[in-house]
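Weekly sync notes, structure subgroup
Attendees: PM, AL, DS (notes)

Item 1: joint prediction request from the bench team. They want all three components modeled as one assembly rather than separately. Inputs as received:
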Amino acid sequence: MTAAALQQAHRAPATRAQERLWRLLLLAALLGVVWSARDLRWAEVWASAGFLLSGLATSGMLALAAISLGALAAVPLALARMHAPAGLRHAVVMLIELVRATPELLVIFWLFFALPAVTGKAVSGWTAAVAALGLIAAAHLAEVVRAGIVTVPKGQWDAALAVGLNPRQALFHVVLPQALRNMLPALIAQLVSLFKATSLAYVVGVIEFFRAVSIVNNAVFAPYALYLTLAAVYLLCCGLLTWCVRRLDPDYLLAS
Amino acid sequence: MTLDWHVIWEYRSDLLQGFVLTLQLSLVAIAGASLLGTLVGCLRASGGFLARRLTALYVELLRNIPIVVKLFLAHFILGIDALPAGIAALILHQSAYVADVTAAGLRSVPSGQADAALALGLSRRRSFSLVVLPQAARAMIPPLTTQYTQIVKNSSVVMLVALQELTFMTQRVEHETFRGLEAATTATILYAALALAIAAAMASVERALERRAA
Amino acid sequence: MTSLLCRRVLCLVIALGVGAAASFAASPGLARSTLDVIRERGKLLAGVRFDAPPNGYVSPQGEIVGFGPDLARELARHLGVELELVQVTSKNRIPLLQSGQIDADIGTTTPTKTRDEVVDFSYVYVVDPTLILVRKGDSTDPADYFDSERRVGALQGSFYVGLWRQHSPAARILEYQELPELVVALAQGKVDVVPTMRSQAFGILEALGERAEGLAVGEAFFEDVMAIGLRENDSDWRDWVNWALQRLWAEGIYQALYKKHYRMDPPFALGDAGRLQPGVDKIAQERDPW
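Output from the run, pasted for the record:
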């Protein structure tokens, strides 16, 4: 049994009555919030619902594009971190550390200005935002991929080689798939974090959810209703994803 | 496109002032979030039913609601002054993550340790503080370092209530001179330096803990 | 530990190095006039505000409306190209213009010398008196707020910060990021006076409806002008834009649009002291599209 399961057994299990009481309390609290918010200017929010939803869709697409890019880039980064010659390895480590230490806003801002200088062509705000968020995701996920690969039991590797696969086949067909399965909670957690970071893409002109709320607010001046909507939507989206993480692996957070 | 680093020199007092405010905010928030988060995390891992459920709700709510919303709630709805509101929002936000880290850290200590301590005659409180917590602390150091770096990065949110920290000053340089790249680079270096200092401090704490355990 | 420290210090040095290297990298130079670029592209990229009624804002149906967008539509029509409206904010209007993401900034930008050094401006196209927003019951005379202990609220990067400092060098100015927060701060007593443009002041009161009870509009103390931002040293494009504005004025379309959004006739004369050149409706050069 794992340490967590042992500790679960030590604590007194919740009785059905306690569970029911707790759920009732939560429902009452939710109804209380809804009741006290009934006088806010919901008409304006409802009228702009289409615009807000399109902003939310943009946020979602940004986050998904960034996580795909980041997950793809994280694998070579992690492999370079583990097996590359010393010079390349240090460069990769320094890149990862720098990206992790820089505020996301500045990474987006920086790429928006630096990319045209390097490629000689102007880049759209969307491109800069996806590139920046993808870079951030890759930097965070590289560590996760490395941990994922390391935790695959060495026996798997040995067995693969014994069966006759060469090292590259062993890596891609046996070790990596298992490592990626280990990584799933971390991937989803990173998606949550990226979703929240998309609110910073406004500096390069992308109209995502946070900016859409701000624009509507500038037109109708209904801050309470709008920011409550903002909180509720983020709570719903991020809460759902985080719940998935906890279901998959309650001990995930120790590795982060 | 040529860079003009002269503007950074011209605005050095503004940028320094902003950096100092960011530093102060970060340090206070780190202390507050650590205290509050550890407390909540301990309750989360080993409290009674109600304590566990309440702290789970606390963590879920505070993790998933954007920090901007918490800041506006504190400043515009509850009427708290800008600086205390900013610190409160930072502490509340990060304490949820620290609580998760603490709970996970406590769960990772094999329960045999607590049992052995009790068997040796230590009280529940002493077995927790002398045996379980120090071992959990060692496991918690790396994720805590990440959280502290997050606090530094999140500190820029207070510019939304007109506090003039580093990102605000970076924007001021950009608005008045249009040297966005120079300003962004300088700010990046300053933030990275702060994160570096924190990581170095935490690494020395980790070494101190290892020496004590050895 | 020292190796960790060294590694991370190296990190910072590299950041500096990359920043310095970027300064020597080639930038997307402007080889041709924007006019040619637009006609080749078949599309006008017009930067307009999405958050500044009545100059540019988003209707509840999600359409971008206002004086700026309408003017942009006229310009695109006469250029014979499609129109794409790109969002600008006070943070990104200059960078977007410099990098070529927009061809013109048709927003609420006041031409100042500092800005003129990096971009060029068309004729003044909007004149909006600067007045103050205060709480009901407080003095409506701006002079009462100069050199006093009263706190001033403004948007970071807006022209009014410098303007207020000219009148009141030692003022305590709180700089916010968005207008709604600024208005709430005024209503709640966190600031005492907010200098803003006349059109925006009345727009705010209208949007607030009955919640505008606690606010009042004070007197004007400055006449703020706005111009269309264009890329630096792009004379052909700037000449065409100025020309287009004059022709729209001659046709009366300009005044009609102005009245529609600002609810008043333009309180100024467009162009060279109001004297439109004779024969302004005739094309001067073959290349000038209309």
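Discussion: Residues 101 and 217 of chain A are 32 Å apart (CA to CA).
Action: AL to compare against the crosslinking data before next sync.
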